[in-house]
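User: I'm writing a tutorial on reading structure tokens. Could you give me a worked example: one chain, its sequence, then its tokens, then a sentence or two explaining what the tokens reveal?
Assistant: Sure. Here is the example chain.
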Amino acid sequence: MVSSSSPAMIQIDGLVKEYGPTKALRGLSFEVPRGQVVGFLGPNGAGKSTTMKILAGYLQPTGGRARVGGLDVATDRLAARKLVGYLPENNPLYEEMMVKEFLEFVADVRNVPASERKDAIRRAAERCGLMPVIGKDIGQLSKGFRQRVGLAQAILHNPDLLILDEPTSGLDPNQIVDIRALIKELGKEKTIIMSTHIMSEVQATCSRVLIISGGTLVADDSPEHLSEGESGKVTVVVAPRNGSPLAADAVVKIFKALPGVSDVKATDAEGAGTLGFELRHGKDDPRRSVFEAAMQNGMVLLEMRRQQVSLEETFRKLTAK
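And here are its predicted structure tokens:
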């Protein structure tokens, strides 16, 4: 239980959002402590953007409560907004403005004190690598630099919480690497909740993953634990020890009888007389049992490799309808 003297950065309790007959959120609840970088995942229509817009103060919830830094985003909207920097998925910008002019406009809207604006704009521009284009029109910039402008406006007022909705959408691989590095750097001093469809991005930048589906929370864990999942597979290549051919059906039966192995199927293998198999298993690693079974049944174990369930597979399993 988070104490009232040190509230979590994000507290969501029973959040509901309805659009007419459609329920985008169905009693969503979770907390994010200060200083954590969280990947917020879900299929299209799961309620990710709706949740982020409620946290940023752009939408009112139908039911439940959302708090930022202990402030209710519905009843303390202006105070809560001061704690939040928000980069929407479509990153709306005024293309006819120069980068510097746009950041000056944002500083004014954000009520950054006049005496501090020049330094705030310089810090944000330097942090986001915008100094080389500070005097250019936004409409002349590449998509990568536009995303940097979007991040700069989000951090300009030095918020405690950054809400990033698909921050690398539409970028090329080099631009993705640059923006990812910037997010990791920002994560050293701020709480970040980030929506993305790129699983490698989550694994590279986030210490925690929240997965929602159908407006409810279906997973809350570290990327490593979700990648380990509840199952995995072991690929095995065997050959006869004494020269007598191996019967694939018999080997399948041997491996399928091992503790924790849920399924075995034959696969292709290179080399005369060799046989390949794929073993599905639960949480326990079956490789020791596989080795012992091969030795006891006249087989030479040529190859054995364990493959953990990927974050993508776990995501699909949890969100498939």
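What the tokens reveal: Residues 114-127 form the longest helix (14 residues). DSSP finds eleven helices and 14 strands in the chain.
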